[in-house]
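Researcher: Please predict.
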Amino acid sequence: MPGITLAVTAWMLSVASSYTHSVNSLPDIDNEAFIKDCVHFHNKFRSEVKPAASDMLYMTWDPVLAQTAKTWARNCWFEHNKELHHPHKLHPNFTSLGENIWTGSLPIFSVSSAITNWYSEIQYYDFKTRNCNNVCGHYTQVVWADTYKVGCAVQYCSAVVTGANTITNAAHFICNYGPAGNYRGSWPYNKGSTCTACSPNDKCLDNLCANPQRDQTTRYYSIVYPDWPIYSRNIYLSRFLIVSPPVIILIALITILVKHR
């Protein structure tokens, strides 16, 4: 399945955390420093890939992806969101979404350590042959050239069951990506001099292909289920579902009054 991988880091530090968190200090998805870190560290690693990438897109924040990650993270389940495989169900612009999950003890969590942990899988990946001798899916999703949107969330969980183990006092960190990466048989990016394969309207920014027009998104949220974003064609259905009950009650009252007269 494209774009979906899990990681457990309960006992080690991937890198020295820039800061540590307590239960009450975990950032929400509208926290500017959190957003900046998520975008920065993804782009940092994307700009530094070896061999160099000729077509790597600059990644920007997407609030719909972040809301999807937040809603799923609340479950404290060490498994992937099955709705990601339903075209257009969770996002108005992407037919498929990717997902990386990191779960570890709360004191060692930081955005930098989690994303660095994902990227560290490069040691198991052979770019020439596309072979992986361990787990590489987090790395390949982080550096998937066509992915240009990311949204992340972190949730405190008293316990997360990960196979035969249980992580207590856990930070459950999820990033969703659009469009998804990790398609079998494909390289994550095309190697070559940086930005040489960017689209004509792109600008080269930190070795990445950037385009403000491409980054524009239309944001939709379900009226009935506000925690879940929806595809634009379902907006009218959502409005009908929330408006119809009061209308039906009003019609019933009018009918009763007419009958009594």
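Model: Residues 31 and 253 are 47 Å apart (CA to CA).
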